[in-house]
Design a protein that fits this description.
The protein is an alpha/beta fold. It is built from 9 helices and 12 strands. The protein has a 6-stranded mixed β-sheet, with helices on both faces. A 4-stranded antiparallel β-sheet has the order 2-1-4-5, covered by helices on one side. Helix 6 (172-187) links the parallel strand 7 (160-164) and strand 8. The longest helix is centred in the last third of the chain and has 16 residues, at 172-187. Pfam families: ABC_tran (PF00005). This is ABC-type cobalamin/Fe3+-siderophore transport system, ATPase component.
Length: 261
């Protein structure tokens, strides 16, 4: 089991404080939803946990070892960060892109092996993108592209996947498909940390919720304990009511407070 944690970690860039004294503890086998308004610090936190931003103060640990002490190539086999959008300068096939996930396992000028090809094939099947292997990436739909980028992360064999707004700009069907895939990967033992704007998706799919506001940790816990009408009003300026569907599913109905309408 992998464990990822921060202790009083802050990030200051260009004299601007982006995160303040964040203490978190995350472990494998969970889907964790990261919520907050734009500018709350979600992307900064993901990059901090991926080792892309060093903490200005405080510490980040992977299995009791500080991230800064882990060689970059080794870290890439344990933690994979998926940004909001991925662009490639050249035209590449889906197979080529997913094979990039094997780069941390290859030495300089080392050719791909049968094991590398098997890992890519397995990642394609797990994300239901095997039929796209020879397609050009730039020709895919938004949902297909997102699944391919997740496949690239799986090809690294990393146990921890950090996804920055993986459902952004996707239609409802593709967004649900991505969320269900992430839920499946968490159930298989991965640590999945997703920044989201869809509060009802967090309520439905997440085991834990992290709520950020202005770079500060407001709450962390189960969706049922963190996502309350008062918390949503305080952090999102939203009136909300809790509804229960005929199937027993709980969800929020939202309305803006009068002063924001």
């Amino acid at each position: 089991m992998n464990q990822l944690q921060t202790q009083q970690a802050s990030v200051i860039l260009a004299k601007k404080t982006l995160l303040q004294h964040i203490t978190l503890y995350l472990s494998s086998g969970q889907l964790v939803a990261l919520l907050g308004l734009n500018g709350a610090g979600k992307t900064t936190l993901l990059k901090l946990l991926a080792g892309l931003y060093p903490p200005t103060t405080g510490h980040v640990y992977l299995n009791s070892t500080e991230l800064r002490r882990i060689p970059r190539q080794q870290l890439a086999t344990q933690i994979s960060y998926v940004p909001q959008q991925t662009h490639f300068e050249f035209a590449l096939t889906v197979w080529d892109i997913v094979m990039m996930g094997r780069n941390p396992h290859l030495g300089r000028f080392q050719a791909e092996t049968t094991q590398d090809r098997d890992s890519v094939t397995q990642a394609l099947y797990r994300t239901d993108t095997q039929h796209l292997a020879q397609r050009w990436f730039h020709e895919l739909s938004g949902g297909e592209k997102q699944r391919v980028i997740i496949a690239r992360s799986l090809a690294t064999q990393a146990n921890i996947l950090l996804l920055d707004e993986p459902t952004a700009s996707l239609d409802i069907a593709h967004a649900l498909s991505i969320l269900q895939l992430c839920r499946q990967l968490a159930d298989e033992g991965h640590l999945m940390l997703l920044s989201l704007h869809d509060i009802n998706a967090a309520l439905r799919y997440a085991d834990q919720v992290i709520l950020l506001n202005a770079g500060q940790l407001q709450a962390m816990g189960t969706p049922q304990t963190v996502l309350t009408p008062q918390t949503l009003r305080d952090n999102f300026q939203l009136h909300s009511e809790i509804l229960t569907t005929a199937s027993g599913q709980t969800l929020f109905y939202f309305d803006q407070p009068r002063e924001y309408s």
